[in-house]
Write a structure and sequence with these properties.
Layout lengths: L3 H12 L9 H13 L3 H6 L3 H18 L2 H22 L2 E14 L2 E16 L2 E18 L2 E4 L6 H10 L6 H25 L22 H10 L5 E4 L5 H14 L9 E6 L2 E6 L10 H17 L7 H15 L1 E2 L15 H5 L3 E2 L1 H14 L4 E8 L1 E10 L2 E5 L24 E3 L1 H4 L4 E2 L16 H5 L2 E2 L4 H14 L4 E6 L2 H13 L14 E6 L4 E6 L1
Parallel strand pairs: 8-9, 15-16
Antiparallel strand pairs: 1-2, 2-3, 3-4, 5-7, 6-7, 10-11, 10-14, 11-12, 12-13, 16-18, 17-18
Helix pairs in contact: 1-4, 1-5, 4-6, 6-7, 8-9, 11-13
């Protein structure tokens, strides 16, 4: 029988910091959080460096020795059981979540993470239950040993080890030995607690990143439980106390739409036994199930690299444009995978960002993933646009807009690639009236915003959107763009089919584009989009 009261002291100690995992220091913190929320004491201990684990094992061994003594075993056992009951009652009402605010590399095997912890507790008062949240920020020193990241012990463990040694000396002088041991352990634990509260490092505090891939737990308990298990890379979920298939299915769909990093949340099967349900997700054909967690880490690292390159001081519009252009420039549309019936990574943010190969859903999930990290409300919807299709909505400045990164990558639309700058902005920040010229929505989208603004549309911002055809204004734009970049691409959007037709008639058939200085005898190609009323010119 184990001495639970010592375990409780270590639990209290550990709750102040975080958790362990192999691929990355941050993964260790996530592992701890999941273990804390599942009351898995042993896994919590595994998050700490080996010296802490050894101290814990010694405490258990010494405690077991004491429990073999009838008098002390009964006395301490009763106290431990009572303390454990109280702790369990408290833990069952408290959940822990984290956000990573900064990262400072000290050397190859040491980093300091700035971590924001949020404890959400459900407190019962009579028949009413209220939710309380406590948030605190700490610096956590992480060390790597044999390619595994651990939380470092913040203080010297020698007193604790000495005390545990005394605790094991169950013999003729039992009472003083136990008293001294508990005194030493209490002193050591207090010292460690103090060390955790005031832990500092010689390195400067890590600057907070302007983005975060850590998202808060959902408010719904079932969704929160699903997310906590997905954070461990699980493809088989054990949902204790849940048996309503429709509720589970709805929760899984909501999680899938909100957390694109958990890309394996796709097709699934359930098995219910009593009040518990097991959910098994369909495996990906080109990624082993034991690599899901590593893939999430790789996705976050690639996302961090992308957003770390983003210039400082960008407006919200410019951030949305930066991510749009990055994905178009770096991801290749995988036409060979379009007709595959098997679930594949090209449908995921991982495929688009890490492997740089995707289909429409992969583009959309990647855009959602990166924009959420920047703090934007951004989601993915599905519908029919020639074939089954996926694209994004995003909220900027209090207004919703549509974005279709896939169709702004010219090769993805089935047409020829436009020469020059291999990007389009036809589907960047559109309203309903424009986007639904080319598509319809599926009936089962969980959320569809009303997009009624064109204020931030790319053509509007560039001064290249014309409700009616104005020869002088359009030619002035062409002249200015040609002077700035003779080899550039010139794109214009018109507000109606009539204005679009008038522009083509005047500029191309009547040759008015030749009236621009420098273009009298210069070769050019033009491209038309009869659905979106976009006319493009590429000179030379």
């Amino acid at each position: 029988m184990k001495l639970r009261i010592l375990s409780l002291a270590l639990i209290v100690l550990i709750v102040c910091v975080g958790c362990g995992g192999k691929p990355k220091a941050e993964a260790t913190i996530r592992k701890y959080v999941s273990a804390y929320n599942h009351h898995d004491q042993d896994q919590m201990i595994e998050c700490y460096e080996p010296s802490v684990q050894k101290a814990y094992d010694a405490a258990q061994a010494a405690g077991n020795a004491i429990m073999e003594s009838t008098f002390w075993g009964t006395l301490i056992g009763n106290v431990a059981e009572k303390a454990q009951e109280e702790a369990d009652d408290k833990e069952n009402k408290t959940r822990l979540s984290v956000k990573f605010k900064g990262r400072e590399r000290i050397d190859e095997d040491t980093v300091v993470l700035t971590v924001e912890y949020t404890y959400t507790s459900r407190v019962r008062s009579g028949k009413k239950t209220k939710t309380e949240k406590v948030t605190e920020e700490r610096e956590v020193r992480m060390i790597r040993i044999d390619d595994v990241w651990y939380i470092a012990a913040p203080v010297d463990l020698s007193k604790l080890t000495e005390g545990l040694g005394k605790l094991g000396e169950i013999g003729k002088d039992l009472q003083p030995a136990v008293s001294d041991a508990f005194s030493a352990i209490g002193s050591a634990v207090s010292g460690m607690m103090s060390g955790l509260q005031t832990q500092t490092t010689a390195a400067a505090a890590a600057p907070a990143l302007p983005f975060s891939f850590e998202r808060p737990d959902p408010a719904d308990p079932l969704e929160a439980e699903i997310v906590s298990q997905l954070r461990l890379g699980k493809c088989v979920l054990d949902l204790k106390g849940y048996s309503d298939f429709e509720a589970i299915k709805a929760a899984i769909y909501r999680v899938r739409e909100s957390y694109p990093q958990y890309f394996w949340v796709n097709g699934f099967q359930t098995e219910t036994l009593g009040s518990d349900t097991t959910v098994t997700f369909s495996p990906f054909r080109n990624l082993p199930e034991d690599q899901y967690l590593q893939a999430v880490t790789a996705l976050e690292e690639a996302g961090t690299a992308i957003l770390s390159q983003m210039p400082e001081g960008l407006s919200d519009y410019e951030k949305a444009l930066y991510v749009h252009d990055y994905l178009v420039d770096h991801c290749v549309y995988d036409e060979a995978s379009v007709d595959l019936q098997e679930t594949a990574l090209v449908h995921t943010a991982y495929g688009c960002i890490v492997q740089e190969s995707a289909v429409c859903e992969g583009y959309a999930r990647a855009y959602q993933y990166l924009m959420q990290a920047l703090g934007f409300e951004c989601g993915t919807v599905s519908g029919i646009a020639r074939n089954s299709h996926a694209w994004n909505y995003i909220s900027i400045g209090g207004s919703y807009y549509w974005v279709d990164v896939t169709w702004d990558d010219p090769i993805s639309t089935g047409g020829e690639t436009i020469a020059g700058d291999n990007k389009k902005h036809t589907y960047f920040l559109l309203d309903d009236a424009h986007i639904f010229r080319t598509r319809t929505l599926d009936d089962d989208n969980l959320f569809v915003p009303q997009c009624s603004s064109m204020e931030l549309n790319w053509f509007v911002r560039q001064g290249r959107y014309f409700e009616t055809y104005d020869r002088a204004a359009v030619l002035a734009q062409i002249s200015a763009m040609y002077s700035a970049d003779p080899a550039g691409k010139m794109e214009f959007m018109f507000g109606s089919a009539e204005a679009y037709a008038a522009a083509m008639q005047d500029l191309i058939e009547n040759g008015q584009i030749r009236s621009v200085p420098g273009l009298e005898y210069t070769a050019y190609n033009y491209y038309t989009d009869d659905e979106m009323f976009v006319l493009s010119f590429v000179i030379g």
